[in-house]
Amino acid sequence: MKKILIINGPNLNLLGTREPEIYGKFTLTDLENKLKDFAKKINIEIECFQSNHEGEIVDKIGSAKNNFNGIIINPAAYTHTSVALRDAISSVQIPTIEVHISNIYSREEFRHNSFIAPVALGQISGLGIDGYLLALEYFSK
Ligand code: DQA
Question: pLDDT tens digits, residue range 120-141?
C-alpha cells in the first residue's frame, strides 16, 4: 500500500477561524478527517502533520526518506520564504505536490513566488480543500 505524508505549514492550525473568506470555514481536523476517509476509499495510507515551525517541517521531510511514496505539502507562508524547505524536498527525492487553498497568483505580489514549485512534481493552487484530495488521487495512480 502506498504511504503519503501530508504536511500543513504555519497558521493552518487556525483554519476555520483564520480569514474564512479566503480559506473557508473548515477546520484542520475537518480537512484531515476528509483526507483520511478518502485515503481509505482509494487504498492509500496517510500520515498528517502540521507545524508552525520551519525546522520541525524540515526534520519531518528529512525523516520521510525511504518511508513515504509521496508528499503533499501546503508550506503556507514558508512557500514564499524558505530555501530550507526547498532543499529538504530536493534532498529526499520523494515526489512532492505543493498545494495551496487559495490562488496565490491572484493575491498579493509577494505570494506569487514559490521557492518550493521548482522542486515539486506539480502545484495545485486555488481549488480550496479539493486541492489536497486531487493530489491524493494523483498518488493513487
Ligand atoms: C496558503 C497561501 C500562502 O500565501 C499563505 O501564506 C498561507 C496559505 C494557501 O493555502 O492558500 O498561509 O498556502
Answer: 999 999 999 999 999 999 999 8
- pTM of the entire predicted model: 0.97
Residue 53 designated active-site:
no
Residue nearest to atom 7 of ligand 1 (CA): 76
* Domain 2-139, second-level architecture: 3-Layer(aba) Sandwich (3.40)
d(C-alpha 33, C-alpha 27), whole Å: 10
Tens of pLDDT, residue by residue over 37-71, are 999 999 999 999 999 999 999 999 999 999 999 99
Q: Which residues line ligand 1 (CB under 6 A)?
A: 11, 74, 76-77, 79, 100-102, 104, 111
